[in-house]
Design a protein that fits this description.
heterodimer; A: mainly alpha; 19 helices; B: alpha/beta; four-stranded antiparallel sheet; 10 strands; 41% helix; binds adenosine-5'-triphosphate; binds magnesium ion
């Protein structure tokens, strides 16, 4: 039964990839291909690191296992984190539950199917970061193939344990919060964790560990080698996993098998415990007075709101109340703010090239803003017909969406620009000039976002969340990069020929043209768009 | 007033609505047809959600393709499956629609309170639409279609999921609206509702409008006394030998 439930799910996934329209299918497969680049890149980096360590000393296994240990520890924590919203969603919120519950299926089967499904989804993170690490480790330390079996078992247990712990945390949250609410909060928390990690990685210099690099710091490598010796590590599943790896690396099969036990001995009870807790939760919730919806006193503003404003308020509400959208917007905005700290360079801003940090900041702003605009159309989902039915000119519909992104990004980008100016001690007039350029680029990029959004809009009724598939995103990136490059080219030419003021004017005019044609195309397409389902 | 002329819609090579011409004015017009007959497609074209392949639609003399903004202001629509903004609260959603239709806030507030009262939605006013039951959502959609007091109301199977009390309220409401001079175009599968309420009936089959007449006319023409037989007669009742064999097979086990 469990298998059937999972196969059914697998079939749905297969259908979205293979049986959609051929255009969509191509894009989906393409985006899947793009997703492979990241793990390959990570693999290449780590592999190079391991290689250079083995050149450096005979006992390169120590820093390598330290590195693996530390990475797996972080990964384990991350897996628990990402597992929480997932284990709130799948068994408590997802839409197919009412169907599943109505079928003559044992409760335990539904639970198990959801658990396995969640565990698989959660483990994709491991494919990205854990697997490249392991492959690099295995290749560099020439571990014989049959250890793979033990390692595979251990990794599965490791992943299942992380998800089981996430499950238990989720259930604890549910004693105090409704599933919807808990999911919303934890999703946003996960987003914050990811941004923090990203920022951390940006500021930590990996080159310190790389003997080939000029900023190599042998002390750091020593610390890494010593990492395995901390005794508190014995309590951590990541360490148990690493023990198995190092045993296999030293070719000790019995040692590896013995070290398989602790992880198995903890994982199985943890899974069972989370099942028991789920059951207990049910009786707990049945005996608790229902979480009554608190009715605030209605404060209906008696003020008049023009349609433009009404559209704006609606969009903001939709974004803020949708954990995914909200988290994504926050991530974008925080990344923009962190960005100046990463890219600034202290130099005298003498030549044109010294401004490339500014240019990259603007380009990033443009890409983020355009991506957010695309989402702004996608959030309409099945309710899109309200806009189609509304007695409003398409300029108003377009304008409201455009303005929402523009108005949220402008202040944040301006702040980021100010930070960058201060960090690179640029004179005030530079800030002013880049502020003007920023406005043009932002206006054009958001308009381009609208164009792509409306052209790739795809009413996918089985997956309304995917109403806009990722192929559009790729085109959008290209369009923005092209748009930005031409703009910078105009400015650079003006700078070199001492006609900077003219080129600033030209660049603004160029942005206005892009904005206007984007507006025009979107409007026409919006009018033509049919509400088919 | 709704006027349609030679309305045609193709999906690929499949003709969903075929050369449909019709005029409806200050009455409750009921649109009948089997599943897939083309009712929803017709209603969508009349509301400017689909572009007709051929033909035109006028709402009070205004061509919906040529002057959509003006035409749409006069119509209200409850679609077959009213998807609402799930992350808005009920009152926020209605307020949103009122603003879109540029209803003065005080008037909007008064209408909203009245309609919420009528459909017993007041207790859900502050709940997210996400949390509402299926029937409650349909009521919200109905309120949304009425908030701007439209001259022409399109209802695509509006009574699905409504409880008996709400259906009664709904009928009274429709009667009242007709008396005010409004035009109502309703598709339904509930023949009893059609029999009791409508002025004229249109029967669509495989995209073609087969018949437009009052109930009385249909009765005298066909010789049947109930709409079910009249309807099945017009569309040509299908061969039910499979049904018989299925029932027999089941009885045998
Ligand atoms: N997007 C589409 N693509 C292809 N065919 C479609 C599409 N939408 C509708 N159709 C077809 O058009 C025909 C008419 O559909 P429509 O939704 O108008 O039927 P209906 O009379 O409303 O049926 P029901 O009583 O089931 O609601 C059906 O055969 C349907 O399969
Ligand atoms: Mg229909």
């Amino acid at each position: 039964m469990i298998l059937k439930l999972l196969l059914n799910r697998g079939l749905q996934i297969k259908n979205t990839f293979l049986d959609s329209g051929s255009g969509i299918k191509r894009y989906r497969l393409l985006s899947l291909g793009v997703l492979f680049i990241l793990p390959v890149y990570i693999y290449a980096q780590i592999n190079q690191l391991f290689k250079s360590w083995s050149v450096l000393s005979d006992n390169a296994l120590l820093p390598a296992t330290g590195f693996v240990n530390l990475s797996l520890l972080g990964l384990f924590a991350l897996l628990v984190f990402t597992g929480i919203p997932l284990s709130l969603h799948l068994p408590f919120v997802s839409k197919d539950l009412s169907l599943l519950r109505s079928l003559p299926l044992p409760e335990a089967d539904i639970w198990a199917a959801k658990f396995i499904q969640g565990c698989l989804i959660n483990s994709t993170l491991f494919l990205y970061f854990g697997l490249p690490l392991l492959i690099a480790f295995y290749i560099n330390y020439e571990i014989s193939a049959w250890f793979l079996f033990i390692v595979l078992l251990a990794v599965i247990a490791f992943l299942a344990l992380a998800y089981a712990i996430a499950n238990i945390c989720a259930i604890l949250l549910l004693t105090a919060l409704s599933a919807q609410r808990a999911k919303y909060i934890t999703t946003i928390l996960v987003a914050f964790v990811f941004v923090a990690l990203w920022a951390g990685f940006q500021l930590f210099r990996f080159s310190q560990l790389d003997p080939i690099s000029t900023s190599f710091n042998p002390q750091r490598l020593e610390q890494l080698a010593q990492f395995n010796t901390h005794s508190w590590l014995d309590l951590l599943p990541s360490h148990w996993l690493v023990n198995i790896f190092s045993q296999s690396a030293q070719n000790h099969p019995s040692g590896a098998i013995v070290r398989l036990f602790p992880i198995l001995l903890v994982t199985i009870p943890a899974i069972m415990f989370s099942f028991i807790l789920t059951r207990k939760l049910k009786t707990f919730q049945e005996n608790r007075p229902a979480l009554i919806h608190k009715h605030q006193t209605e404060k209906h503003l008696e003020k008049k709101r023009p349609p433009f404003l009404a559209l704006l308020i609606k969009d903001l509400n939709l974004i803020i109340r949708d954990a995914r959208q909200f988290a994504q917007s926050i991530i974008f905005l925080i990344m923009l703010m962190v960005f100046p700290f990463i890219i600034y360079e202290k130099n005298d801003l003498l030549s044109l090239f010294d401004f490339h940090a500014f240019a990259s900041l603007l380009l990033f702003t443009a890409i983020f803003a355009a991506l957010s605009t695309v989402k702004l159309l996608a959030i309409e989902r099945k309710s899109f017909y309200h806009l189609k039915k509304a007695p409003l000119a398409s300029q108003t519909l377009f304008g409201a969406k455009w303005f929402t992104t523009y108005a949220t990004f402008l202040p944040v980008a301006t702040l980021a620009l100010a930070i960058l100016s201060v960090l690179s001690s640029a004179p005030l007039q530079f800030f002013g000039i880049f502020f003007i350029i920023l406005n043009g680029i932002l206006a054009g990029a958001v308009a381009l976002g609208m164009v792509v959004a409306i052209y790739f809009v795809n009413f996918n009724w089985d997956h309304p969340r995917n109403m806009l598939h990722s192929g559009g995103t790729l085109w959008l990136m290209l369009a923005i990069i092209l748009f930005g490059s031409i703009d910078f080219l105009i400015l650079a030419l003006g700078y070199m020929t001492d006609l900077f003021l003219l080129s600033l004017l030209l660049s603004t005019g160029y942005a206005v043209v892009v904005f206007l044609s984007g507006t025009y195309i979107t409007q026409k397409k919006l009018e033509k768009l049919e509400w088919i389902y | 007033m709704i006027k349609a002329e030679h309305l045609t819609k193709k999906y690929g090579s499949f003709i969903a609505v075929d050369d449909l011409s019709l005029r409806v004015e200050n009455e409750l017009f009921v649109f009948l047809g089997v599943n897939g007959a083309g009712k929803t497609t017709t209603i969508k074209m009349m509301n400017g959600l689909l572009r007709p392949g051929r033909g035109k639609v006028w709402i009070h003399g205004i061509d919906i393709q040529e002057n959509p903004v003006k035409a749409k202001r006069m119509t209200g629509l409850v679609p077959e499956e009213p998807f609402l903004y799930e992350k808005l609260k009920t009152h926020e959603f209605i307020r949103f629609l009122a603003d879109i239709y540029k209803i003065p806030p005080t008037l909007a507030k008064r209408r909203m309170d009245q309609l919420f009262d009528i459909f017993e939605l007041a207790e859900h006013a502050d709940a997210l639409i996400d949390e509402l039951s299926h029937g409650t959502r349909r009521k919200v959609a109905l309120v949304g279609a009425l908030i701007h007091d439209p001259e022409v109301l399109f209802l695509d199977e509006p009574t699905i999921g409504l409880d008996p009390e709400s259906v009664r309220t709904f009928k009274t409401l429709l009667d009242g609206l007709i008396k005010q001079g409004k035009t109502i175009f309703m598709s339904t599968h509930i023949l009893e509702l059609a029999e009791k309420m409508c002025h004229r009936i249109g029967i669509i089959h495989q995209g073609k409008l087969h018949k437009v007449a009052t109930l009385q006319q249909l009765k005298t023409e066909s010789g049947y006394n109930d709409l079910e037989n009249i309807f099945l007669n017009i569309i040509g009742s299908k061969n039910d030998s499979s049904l018989q064999s299925f029932l027999q097979g089941n009885a045998g086990t």
